[in-house]
User: Which sequence fits this backbone?
């Protein structure tokens, strides 16, 4: 048997995959439309390039290498000369159309010259996967006919694959090149315009929600666009308002400060949440032991979760006494629900107020999570009806194909009578009050225990339709419709025989109209307009016992949560299918518009972390800063042509600036003046620090600065430990006195020798200064190791006795990873009420641009840098310039 | 057609150079033209806006929401700025006594302005300061909102004035560079000091606040002049030269004096809580008219 294997170009595969591209692009549009327009343009550009490259291929194929040139004439012409020759010839010859003949062999036992046996043709794709195979029988023809036959056959078959390219049956191109290009352009313009329009509709015009859903459904084949569903309106909803909870307050806040939704169980001061925001989110101070998971203020504990991409903060407030374990879960669930329901709106609203009817969702979440000891059912009220009624499901059950156990539930005769809900354990229902019916149905969300008696009946069926049935049906339908605008219809489907129906794909809802021989004409419009296709899964599910559970709010919530979980799993690729996602994702690395995930930023973050470490930032601080930068970046989108690295860098600069910017005024002169004028006492500054960091030197620099401003300064020598410390200060005092005589400043030294208690000396010095009318007291203290508990403990007494207005800690710029611990220990050393007021970073001139210690210390404590020591002279004292420091750190 | 014959093969496909060029040309040109067409319509960013600044807890976001929704909406500390487009109708609406919440729709749809709310936390003030731009088509006006009930306490006053000082300094700097570059000196930017919360018992009247702010600014100016150089001093972008607000030869700061330095200040009381903000609204509409 002879075989021909033909390989078709790989790009044809792309053609087939192209179908997958279109909806992907639509979703991309949807996804992207709040971004810069330029990025949308880029997305368009990519799609256009892709499509045009495809069309380019077709063009070259059709115009240049059509099927007609598929060198079969030569093949056939030489058939008689032996198979080896033929295959050689074919191999050497390029064929148009990109179709290449891999091998063409004649079977050894071929009968005679000029005759082929069976020609077995294999069409393979680029990876040599078999696409199709067929057998030709040219054996009976002469070589010429065989050629024609083979050629036309192959062309026809192959042309099937090339239909799009506009070839006619002979495989000949039928269009002129210019026409094709013009058509292409028009098509492109239309495609892009349409997609843009769709994107716009999807995002911007929420008024066209119907159209949006339609498009979504069409492309996504998602039958459930839950996020866009209408809620049952409040008044028909059976849930009690404000069920009591252990929570005190729950708020959904935008980062721009608007409270989008809140539920307050007890009045809580707004300052509680405000302090959470300013302490945790702005100043990034975590309370000891909390690891950033909770925040305590007054008697409350606050927990929160963030949706960084939308700029939302979810905060739960409860009494610290309570150990509520379910808060995290609640926050997570509420976040998912809120984002699913209002995410688009929040995005479009640009950080301002939107209307949220979130109450039921929240209540339901709380109910399902909050265990209520000794009270009613945990999640769902048990007082519903059973699904034993489902057994009444009868003949018109094409729908139940999926549910195999249906047969055994086959119907007992339905009870004739007025449609009625039997009163169940604690709900009384009457058929004449549609709203109540709706209520009951909503409540009956759980299993529905109970017997045959508890049934809703609407028996228009087998016993013959009485007018009463008909009218009851009519009465209820509009009621339902109005009570639950959209989903109501789907949720209450009752069999004609009174069962909760498993409505199937092809089943109509309107049993009252079709059952028992009564004709449609007997029913009025609302009833007749109801028939629609119902997918069982859209309105309820079956439990393992075969109980049918109606869909309600809890279902919707579950659905949203399920979807959120799935999309979590899928990640961002879920947004755009297959090829499009891959290509776009890759390209976005370069052109921007990429939504960042944690993995994306990992590399850049670790790079910048190394950079920080090189700048002498303590590892602990660097790691934490990087962490917070990373969390703030996740979910963000890169700008046009912005690499992740540059985005991370910008974010890092912002973070560093935020850390270094002081929250209080650092104007020392102003404060001194203030204290002097209002209280008349001297302003007390004390200086602490580890050994040898330059406490005395910086003290004299500050003193010089104060003297230049014509203040009267008393230096108190409270280093009673190190020999020479007092003498050193005496020299400084003498120098300063000489320097400042002309300026008009007065400086004096208060000393009591060595060995005495520093706290007492400090106290005496302040009293002395007050009596002598000094403006400022500068207290020098002994250097102490920050991890020496014995030495550090004396600081608390010192702070109490001297009661300084400012306690400044001197830290070396040279210090490395120890800086964090130094700052923390000194900050904690002054007791519960007293903290450090500022840092003086000395020896900045010796480190060049490695000013990491600045960041480490400020980050560890949140205390600002007041002064920098930049040299050996009295004048070498500077205030911190945040821009300068950030510039050095990022250089 | 001869020219269209393939010259090369790429990946087994014959490629024709002219077709390649034509296609590439089309590919590059179409989206550019298209996006030009589309973006010209939709690119309606906040090229000119009112800036809403001020220390925290002064009611900036509340004012924004009050203008937007005409009701009081609870707020928390902001951490990001928000720009909202508002119809000018919201400013005129109060004038008609009887039609309470009726915004004249024809006006509302045609004329609108942007209002940029910025966080007031000290660490986030740079967001407001960097968005000040005196160039053409930039800030229409700046609203500096403060809490008139807390100014009697010194720390809060210092905080408020420090922010105001920084703000005025930024304006002054920009104004100086602007007037250097152009021959005629540009118009000063209007700045409203909106003294919010005057419904509270401890609130100071606007005249008192005005004096308080001016003297406090003067004091701050004095200490800043005496203060230390900052660490970046002496390097290329030396900011120290511009540290002094207003006239360098005097330690006093007056609103009239600041007019030369690019800002025209008016101080007006109001209260969002008691929906008493007409004076601010009329100030805004006068800015828009100008």
Assistant:
């Amino acid at each position: 048997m002879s075989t021909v294997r033909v390989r078709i170009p790989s790009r044809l595969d792309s053609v087939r995959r192209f179908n997958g591209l279109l909806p992907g692009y639509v979703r991309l549009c949807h996804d992207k439309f709040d971004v810069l327009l330029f990025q949308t343009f880029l997305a368009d550009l990519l799609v256009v390039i892709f499509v045009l490259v495809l069309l380019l291929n077709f063009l070259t194929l059709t115009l240049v290498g059509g099927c007609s040139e598929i060198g079969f004439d030569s093949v056939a012409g030489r058939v008689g000369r032996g198979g080896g020759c033929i295959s050689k010839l074919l191999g050497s010859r390029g064929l148009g159309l990109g179709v290449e003949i891999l091998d063409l062999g004649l079977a050894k036992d071929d009968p005679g010259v000029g005759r082929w046996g069976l020609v077995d043709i294999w069409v393979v794709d680029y990876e040599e996967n078999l696409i199709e195979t067929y057998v030709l029988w040219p054996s009976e023809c002469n070589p010429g006919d065989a050629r024609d036959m083979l050629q036309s056959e192959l062309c026809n078959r192959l042309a099937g694959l090339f239909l799009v390219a506009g070839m006619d049956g002979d495989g000949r191109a039928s269009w002129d090149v210019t026409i094709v290009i013009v058509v292409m352009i028009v098509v492109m313009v239309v495609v892009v315009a349409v997609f843009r329009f769709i994107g716009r509709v999807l995002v911007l015009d929420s008024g066209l929600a119907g159209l949006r859903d339609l498009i979504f459904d069409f492309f996504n084949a998602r039958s459930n666009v839950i996020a866009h569903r209408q809620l049952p309106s409040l008044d028909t909803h059976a849930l009690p308002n404000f069920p009591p909870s252990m929570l005190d307050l729950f708020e959904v806040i935008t980062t721009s400060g608007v409270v989008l939704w809140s539920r307050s169980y007890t009045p809580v001061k707004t300052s509680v949440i405000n302090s959470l925001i300013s302490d945790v989110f702005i100043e990034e101070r975590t309370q000891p032991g909390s690891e950033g998971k909770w925040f305590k203020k007054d008697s409350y504990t606050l927990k929160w979760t963030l949706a960084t991409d939308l700029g939302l903060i979810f905060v739960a407030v409860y009494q610290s006494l309570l150990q509520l374990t379910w808060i995290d879960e609640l926050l997570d669930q509420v976040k998912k629900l809120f984002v699913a329901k209002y995410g688009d709106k929040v995005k479009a609203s640009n950080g301002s107020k939107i209307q949220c009817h979130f109450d039921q969702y929240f209540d339901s979440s709380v109910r399902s999570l909050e265990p209520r000891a000794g009270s009613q059912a945990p999640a769902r009220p048990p007082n519903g009806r059973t699904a034993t009624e489902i057994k009444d499901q009868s003949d018109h059950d094409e729908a139940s194909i999926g549910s195999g156990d249906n047969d055994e539930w086959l119907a007992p005769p339905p009870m004739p009578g007025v449609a009625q809900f039997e009163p169940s354990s604690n709900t009384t229902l009457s058929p004449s009050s549609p709203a109540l019916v709706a209520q009951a149905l909503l409540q009956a969300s759980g299993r529905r225990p109970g017997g045959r008696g508890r049934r809703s009946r609407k028996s228009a069926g087998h016993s013959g339709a009485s007018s009463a049935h008909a009218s009851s049906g009519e009465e209820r339908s509009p009621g339902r419709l109005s009570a639950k605008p959209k989903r109501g219809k789907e949720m209450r489907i009752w069999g004609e025989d009174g069962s909760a129906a498993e409505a199937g794909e092809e089943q109509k809802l309107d049993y009252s109209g079709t059952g028992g021989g009564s004709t449609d004409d007997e029913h009025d419009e609302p009833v007749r307009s109801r028939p629609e296709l119902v997918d069982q899964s859209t309105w309820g599910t079956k439990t393992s016992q075969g109980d049918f559970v109606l869909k309600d709010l809890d279902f919707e919530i579950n659905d949203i949560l399920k979807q959120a979980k799935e999309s979590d799993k899928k990640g961002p690729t879920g947004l755009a299918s297959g090829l499009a996602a891959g290509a776009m994702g890759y390209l976005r690395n370069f052109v921007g518009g990429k939504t960042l995930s944690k993995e994306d930023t990992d590399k850049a973050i670790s790079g910048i972390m190394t950079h920080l470490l090189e700048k002498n930032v303590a590892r602990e601080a660097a790691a934490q800063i990087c962490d917070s930068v990373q969390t703030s970046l996740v979910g963000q989108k890169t700008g046009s042509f912005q690499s992740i690295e540059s985005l991370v860098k910008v974010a890092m600069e912002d973070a560093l600036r935020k850390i270094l910017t002081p929250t209080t005024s650092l104007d020392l002169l102003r404060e001194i003046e203030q204290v002097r004028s209002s209280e008349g006492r001297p302003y007390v500054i004390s200086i602490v620090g580890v050994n040898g960091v330059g406490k005395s030197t910086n003290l004299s620099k500050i003193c010089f600065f104060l003297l230049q401003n014509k203040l009267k300064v008393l230096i108190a020598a409270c280093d009673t430990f190190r020999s020479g410390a007092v003498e050193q200060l005496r020299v400084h005092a003498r120098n300063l006195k000489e320097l400042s005589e002309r300026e008009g400043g007065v400086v004096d030294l208060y000393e009591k020798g060595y060995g005495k208690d520093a706290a007492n000396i400090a106290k005496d010095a302040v009293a002395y200064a007050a009596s002598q009318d000094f403006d400022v007291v500068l207290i020098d203290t002994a250097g102490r190791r920050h991890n020496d508990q014995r030495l550090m403990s004396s600081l608390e007494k010192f702070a109490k006795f001297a009661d300084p207005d400012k306690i400044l800690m001197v830290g070396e710029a040279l210090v490395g990873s120890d800086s964090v611990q130094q700052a923390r220990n000194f900050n904690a050393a002054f007791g519960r009420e007293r903290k450090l007021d500022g840092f003086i970073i000395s020896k900045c001139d010796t480190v060049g641009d490695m000013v990491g210690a600045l960041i480490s210390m400020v980050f560890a404590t949140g205390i600002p840098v007041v002064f920098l020591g930049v040299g050996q002279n009295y004048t070498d004292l500077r205030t911190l310039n945040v821009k300068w420091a950030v510039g050095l750190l990022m250089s | 057609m001869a020219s269209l014959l393939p010259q090369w093969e790429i990946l087994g496909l014959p490629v024709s150079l002219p077709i390649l060029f034509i296609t590439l040309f089309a590919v590059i040109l179409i989206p550019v033209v298209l996006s030009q067409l589309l973006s010209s319509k939709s690119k309606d960013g906040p090229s000119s806006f009112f800036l809403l600044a001020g220390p925290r807890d002064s009611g900036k976001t509340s004012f924004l929401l009050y203008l937007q929704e005409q009701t009081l909406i609870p707020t928390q500390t902001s951490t990001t700025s928000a720009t909202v487009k508002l119809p000018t109708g919201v400013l005129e609406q109060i004038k008609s006594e009887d039609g309470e919440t009726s915004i004249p729709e024809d006006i509302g749809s045609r004329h609108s302005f942007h209002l940029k709310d910025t966080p007031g936390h000290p660490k986030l003030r740079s967001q407001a300061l960097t968005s000040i731009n005196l160039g053409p088509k930039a800030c229409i006006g700046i609203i500096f909102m403060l809490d008139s009930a807390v100014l009697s306490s010194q720390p809060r006053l210092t905080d408020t004035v420090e922010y105001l000082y920084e703000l005025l300094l930024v304006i002054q700097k920009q104004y100086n560079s602007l007037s250097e570059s152009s021959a005629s000196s540009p118009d000063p930017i209007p700045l409203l000091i909106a003294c919010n919360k005057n419904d509270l018992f401890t609130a100071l009247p606007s005249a008192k606040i005005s004096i308080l702010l001016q003297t406090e600014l003067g004091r701050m100016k004095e200490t800043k002049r005496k203060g230390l150089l900052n660490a970046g001093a002496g390097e290329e972008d030396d900011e120290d030269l511009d540290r002094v607000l207003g006239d360098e030869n005097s330690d006093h700061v007056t609103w009239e004096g600041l007019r030369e330095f690019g800002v025209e200040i008016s101080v007006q009381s109001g209260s969002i809580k008691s929906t008493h903000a007409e004076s601010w609204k009329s100030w805004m509409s006068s800015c828009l008219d100008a």
